[in-house]
């Protein structure tokens, strides 16, 4: 049986975090060949992720499978911005994104954050964020070969009407 451990991210996670992002990133590239995404890819390199992990403005939570494989992770910036959320393909559809989102919310509350949250959602992920209670806050943007939708979540009260799958009760 493969179990998952939720823990805070640490410096040694940078390479696995970067590898997971790079594996999943082509799904949200504007061009199939990845043209123009070089700045984005540089911003998610192992060295860049190591920098985020070492920076007090960022906080990471990881779900680690038995044996140490990365099943997924979430990161916040400045307590209120959902900076990264990725789940490995083998683990998708099992509620891990929701579990990570809740860990981030709890961490923000522990840090004294009582307001809302923002995210720049990759277009294929918009439905996931909508299930979490996020709403679009403007038109889709294009930058560095990617398209994203700025979204806002009002705060923990938005989750009251959802079940564990993020669907309305």
Automatic annotation (TrEMBL):
Domain N-acetyltransferase, residue spans: 4-156
Broadest EC class assigned to this enzyme: transferase
PROSITE patterns: GNAT
EC number(s) given by UniProt: 2.3.1.-
Pfam families linked: Acetyltransf_10 (PF13673)
Keywords, comma-separated and alphabetical: Acyltransferase, Transferase
InterPro entries assigned to the protein according to its UniProt record, in alphabetical order: Acyl_CoA_acyltransferase, Bact_Acetyltransf, GNAT_dom
GO molecular function terms noted in the UniProt entry: acyltransferase activity
Superkingdom of the source species: Bacteria
Protein name per Swiss-Prot or TrEMBL: GNAT family N-acetyltransferase
Native organism: Roseateles flavus
Native organism taxonomy: Bacteria, Pseudomonadati, Pseudomonadota, Betaproteobacteria, Burkholderiales
């Amino acid at each position: 049986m493969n179990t998952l451990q939720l823990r805070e991210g640490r410096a040694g996670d940078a390479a696995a975090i970067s590898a997971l992002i790079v594996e999943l990133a082509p799904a949200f590239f504007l061009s199939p060949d990845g043209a123009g995404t070089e700045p984005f890819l540089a911003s998610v390199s192992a060295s860049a992720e190591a920098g985020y992990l070492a920076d007090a403005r960022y906080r990471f939570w990881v779900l680690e499978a038995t044996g140490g494989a990365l099943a997924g992770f979430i990161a916040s910036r400045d307590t209120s911005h959902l900076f990264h959320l990725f789940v490995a393909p083998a683990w998708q559809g099992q509620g891990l994104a929701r579990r990570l989102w809740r860990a981030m919310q709890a961490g923000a509350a522990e840090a004294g954050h009582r307001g809302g949250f923002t995210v720049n959602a990759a277009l294929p992920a918009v439905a996931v964020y909508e299930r979490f209670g996020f709403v679009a806050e403007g038109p889709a943007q294009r930058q560095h070969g990617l398209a994203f939708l700025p979204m806002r979540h009002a705060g923990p009260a938005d989750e009251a009407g959802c079940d564990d799958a993020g669907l309305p009760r």
